[in-house]
Write a structure and sequence with these properties.
The protein has ten helices and ten strands. The protein is α/β, with parallel strands linked by helices and 337 residues long. The model has no long low-confidence stretch (mean pLDDT 96). Bound molecules: NADP nicotinamide-adenine-dinucleotide phosphate (NAP).
Length: 337
């Protein structure tokens, strides 16, 4: 009999409709390091332990294997489809007319589902780079953000909701200027915003903006993505699990620094989606939301430790003429074109 977490001990997060979702999900991007078999095996183990939210994406190239796992845990009676909350994302090369439906149908087929709970626009650009490419690679067809093009993609996402293929739609890798431009145009509002979020990169303004607009912040790289691909590493990057404040708090609670990052996220109101294929890791990543919370002083200490250090800079999406990766993130407060 495998170990199971008592789910009634976990806090819940609310979507704008009032529907409740789990406070922590499982990430499924293998960072070019973990293969789809290992990841899908972890998905089974994680659901058996108590995970209900699984963060998927077409570009992770493992939805078919994860589909096997979902089928297994449903057929064996561990969960019903309704108890699960499965996300997926349309990749950048599928933004064109009719393509979003095609992409969603492929994910549905691979995941063996009749609907996806939350479907994200993965990046707000149609700029494509091949999975596993180097950090220096550039696609000459890349373009800056366009409100019209983004909205054409969003309209296709709205139609997926109309067709009953997805229950909610979400945005990812957005900035406040981009959200300001597109939110008034949405017929169906984004339920969630997937954003990089960890102690060394807290994005307080974007977090507050999302919450004010009833958009649930979902935090990616919540542990600072220690296994991320080489292309997403620079010398000045901060390692969250080595930050002095995080290490000290971890000692005080007798847990790994990774767990402190997750407790902080949950208590702040972000839904972290940590990746792990290792059973003790993914079990503690969920169970840590249930007990031994950080004190208000510890929460404040981590808030003050923000290093504003973005790890996923997205430089492979830059368009010809852009100066550097900061252009992707509108750091001057207006949309950079
Ligand atoms: N929307 C987007 O554009 C976007 C971008 C990036 C990621 N994501 C999503 O976010 C998920 C999470 O991000 P991520 O995978 O980059 O980074 P992460 O969750 O911050 O880091 C994952 C790594 O942390 C380590 N770890 C996990 N739990 C641990 C524990 N309890 N104790 C010690 N170490 C632990 C593991 O390292 P070892 O491998 O060394 O064990 C694992 O590989 C992805 O899988 C993906 O689903 C979305």
């Amino acid at each position: 009999m495998c170990e199971k977490l008592d789910l009634s001990t976990l806090p819940k997060r609310k979507l704008y409709t009032g529907e409740e979702i789990p406070p922590v999900g499982l990430g499924t991007f293998g960072s070019d390091k973990y293969g789809s078999e290992e990841i899908s095996h972890a998905v089974c183990g994680a659901i058996r332990y108590g995970y209900r939210l699984i963060d998927c994406a077409a570009v992770y190239q493992n939805e078919e294997q994860i589909g096997n796992s979902l089928e297994t845990v449903i057929q064996e009676g561990t969960v019903t489809r309704k108890e699960l909350f499965i996300t997926s994302k349309v990749w950048n090369d599928m933004h064109g007319p009719g393509k979003v439906l095609e992409s969603c149908q492929k994910s549905l087929q691979d995941l063996r589902l009749t609907y996806i709970d939350l479907y994200f626009v993965h990046w707000p650009f149609p700029n494509y780079h091949a999975p596993g490419c180097s950090g220096d690679s550039r696609n000459p067809d890349s373009k800056p953000f366009s409100v019209d093009e983004f909205m054409a993609t969003w309209r296709q996402c709205e139609e997926l909701v109309d067709k009953g293929l997805v229950r909610y739609i979400g945005m990812s890798n957005m900035t406040i200027p981009k959200l300001e431009a597109v939110l008034p145009l949405c017929r169906i509002q984004p339920a969630a915003l997937e954003m990089e979020c960890h102690p060394g990169f807290q994005q307080p303004e974007l977090f507050d903006y999302a919450v004010r607009h009833h958009i649930l912040p979902v935090g990616y790289c919540p542990i600072g993505s220690p296994s991320r691909p080489e292309r997403d590493r620079t010398e000045s990057d901060v390692a969250d699990t080595q930050m002095e404040e995080i290490v000290d708090i971890a000692k005080a609670h007798g847990v790994h620094p990774a767990v402190v990052c997750l407790k902080w996220a949950v208590q702040r109101g972000v839904v972290p989606i940590p990746f792990s294929v290792k059973l003790p890791q993914y079990q503690s990543n969920l169970s840590c939301a249930a007990s031994d919370p950080l004190t208000p002083q510890e929460m404040e200490c981590i808030r003050k430790a923000d290093k504003d250090c973005r790890l996923i800079k997205g430089q492979v999406f830059l368009w010809p003429g852009a100066s550097d990766w900061e252009d992707l993130w509108d750091i001057n407060g207006t949309i950079t074109r």
